[in-house]
Amino acid sequence: MRLHPSASLVSLFILVGACSLINAPDDVVPHGAGAGAATAGTSSSEAGKNSTTGGTSSSEGGTGDTTPAGGDVGAGGDVGAGGDVGVDPGPGPNPTTGMLVLATQTDKKVRHLSVVNGRTGKELADEALPVAAIAYDEAPARHAWFVFTSGAFPASPTGAADLEVRYFFEASAKWFVVGRTTALPPPEPDQVVALNDRLAYLSHRVVNGKAVSALTVLDTSDLTNVTEVDSMTAGAGETYVGLTGDRGSDVNDGALGGRLRLMVSSACVASGCDLAAQQVFVGDSITAGTSVTLDHFVGQPRFVKARNEDKLYVALRSTAPSSRVVVRSFQGPDLTAPTLLATLTGFVGDDVGGFTLAECEQGGVVTDVTGGKLIAFHLISGTQHPVDLVSPGGPIYTEPFGPSVIALDSSMAPGLRAFEVSKAGTMNIAINERSVWQPNSALMPLTGAPRRPESFKCP
pTM, whole model, 2 decimals? Predict the structure, then answer.
């Protein structure tokens, strides 16, 4: 889906002709991306006060200050005011090479912000910063990174978080901090969705002295001044356990905000909890829609929204009727026509650590926390291929430019493994670890987000 650029960013411009650190002769162009995209350059701000890479924050001392060394925020009114701040989305207006931005930590639990080459796994930049969650906005003329910071990971439900909006200049491997917002509801990692000029995420609110699950929506129309739009808290006996979404409205992909699927756990008893999907419409406020019951489950479920069709995928340990980890799909805005795609017979335990799709290869991938496995499966036939991860299964992301699936292991450094999912005939898939992937970070990954192209289309 393509969006109209925000009015606040009209004055930003791209300098053409600089090279990118990520570019290489064997880079793979992602599905639907043009190979001839222009290469963006860097602005004069990189050499001056806005360079933050390599700086340290006072977070190592536990003060909670998240300002990197030298990280002035758009000083002089450059951003959105006709100044000299170029946008280097890397490279070109529509990125054609991969990048992964991660929250990592040392063996002493000091957190960092790390930038990784999506093709090789090599670390491009590293900065001490107490990262709590990360999201990427691929909208045209934006290509912005949202980096939440907090005193703990995961962020304390009864605390607060700060937010930094950033650009990454690849030609110099440096960050530019566009704006900062403080005292926001604390985010849950891997539960952040970028909409049109809005950012929605699962959080918590303190109600009558207790932390309650919440949905928070931020106004990102002005990246230099992100503000809170609205929030919605869970009802008695409810917990928000997942969030997916689409930009725009049913009739206008470019409309403000978008449509969310808020996953709600309720009516918990010894045998498990009910799972429902709540429609939520986001614009100038939050509007709740209808709710649909999906399953009865235990453990930690995971959810993925397809990008090339209106379909929701759910992976969880179902207690009715199979008592197995299952993957189901639900079609359309009303989540009708539920389909059982796979019963993951080799899954151990109750918690799904991560879930992602390789849509063009008709594949899905989940990780098993307790069993320490990654399981790839065909979205139609359900055939499965397990991979032994040795350590507990954690977050996984589809890196569309590789293309590959990247698995995070928070127990070791560099803790990053990349797999290629490919078609094998009409009703099967293959999964192979990528030999070109050679990460070199000395830090352990916690959470992150991959860069995505502006539009998604299978070849």
Answer: 0.82
